[in-house]
């Protein structure tokens, strides 16, 4: 009988160790699956970050070009604008002289060739200035 008990105890130990091994195998498989999914997610996220970084750098380059063009055009505009006041002064003086001469001759200034156009040019030039 003691031999039977020894054999039964051995079988019980063997079954328990197989259950423990089966549990470990399941845990290993779950950990491996989770690790693979996490690795894939990290790779996808890393690729997305790299793509976004490349796009950002391209946009920064394009922005720098646009900024440089804007600065050049602003410089050009302000140089041109600096000529407006002296030109407006000359044009207004010319209009005043023309009006006086027309009055002395007894004609309407608007009947003089180019007078209406010059008046319109004065208005348009004044409007073309920034903030005016």
Structural class: mainly alpha
Quick check: average pLDDT?
87
Figure out the total of helices: 3
Order of helices and strands: HHH
- What is the percentage of strand-forming residues? under 5%
Helix fraction bin: over 70%
Q: pLDDT below 50 for ≥5 consecutive residues: which ranges? A: none
C-alpha-based Rg, rounded: 45 Å
Which word captures the global form? rod-shaped
Annotation, overall tally of beta strands: 0
How many domains, in number, for the residues?
A: 2
Q: Characterize the main sheet.
A: none
Amino-to-carboxy terminus distance: 116 Å
Summarize this structure as a short list of keywords or feature phrases:
2 domains, mainly alpha, rod-shaped
How do the helices and strands line up, and which of them pair or pack?
Layout: H1 2-81, H2 84-105, H3 115-127
What would your notes on this structure say?
The protein has 132 residues and is mainly alpha-helical. The protein has 2 domains: 80 residues; 50 residues. It is 87% helix and 0% strand. It contains 3 helices and no strands. Helix 2 packs antiparallel against helix 3. It is rod-shaped and about 150 Å long.
Task: Describe this structure in a few short sentences.
With 132 residues, this protein is an all-alpha fold. It is built from three helices and no strands.
């Amino acid at each position: 009988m003691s031999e039977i008990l020894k054999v039964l105890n051995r079988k019980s130990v063997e079954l328990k160790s197989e259950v423990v091994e089966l549990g470990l195998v399941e845990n290993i498989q779950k950990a491996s699956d989770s690790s693979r999914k996490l690795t894939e997610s990290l790779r996808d996220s890393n690729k997305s970050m790299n793509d976004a970084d490349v796009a950002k750098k391209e946009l920064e380059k394009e922005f720098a070009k646009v900024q440089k063009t804007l600065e050049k055009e602003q410089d050009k505009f302000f140089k041109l604008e600096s000529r407006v006041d002296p030109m407006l002064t000359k044009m207004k003086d010319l209009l005043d002289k023309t009006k006086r001469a027309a009055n002395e001759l007894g004609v309407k200034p608007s009947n003089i060739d180019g007078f209406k156009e010059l008046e319109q040019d004065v208005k348009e030039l004044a409007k073309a200035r920034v903030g005016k």
